[in-house]
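Hello,

Our lab assistant flagged a job as stuck in the queue for most of the afternoon. It eventually completed. Since we weren't sure the result was trustworthy after the delay, we are filing this so someone can double-check. Below is the sequence as submitted and the structure that was eventually returned. Let us know if re-running is recommended.
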Amino acid sequence: MSEQFRFDQYDALIFDMDGTLVDSMPLHLDAWEVTSSEFGLPFDRAQLNEYGGIPTRKTVSMLAAQHGLDIDVDAFTHRKTALYLENIDKALVFPPMWELVKRWHGKVPMGIGTGSSREHARRILKNTGLDAYISVLVSADDIHNHKPHPDTFLKVAELLGANPANCLVFEDTQIGIQAGKAGGMATLLATEGALQRV
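-- returned structure --
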């Protein structure tokens, strides 16, 4: 899968988590679907998938404004999060991504930049065993300007002591790719473990 890519030429490999390393987006989207129905918010699975990387609270506010709806953002976020947490332990690492992480562990520094909260991200990393391979984590709680701003990935590069211009970002959404490029980084689209230059 990754033979065509020379990952050792980079200062660091930086991964998004949900939908890139871990097959957790369906869990998020299922929680979104139920909550949207309960709060009267139109639900578009494909659109919400593309908003992966933006914290729930910000996404609800954006969607409510788009649809001209007055929604209790706190209540919505609380409910969606509760539904997601009921299933969070079902999240698994995409096998090709596991292979990639294990192969380059100890050879190229690696970090994660996610739109998830630190608590949820740490739980997934611990549960899947990824925490033994990737110690640098930047979550939604650590950044003010979330994706598509580059701050998340720039912070990961800083923590890894890497030059952003020589980092490679793995992402599953255009918003995430945009964030990587805005940080001056090389980007790869990672869809269920399949990699593609963008």
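-- support follow-up --
The delay was a queue issue, not a problem with the job. The result is valid. Helices lie at 25-39, 45-50, 56-66, 73-87, 95-104, 118-128, 151-160, 174-182. The chain is about 45% helix and 15% strand.
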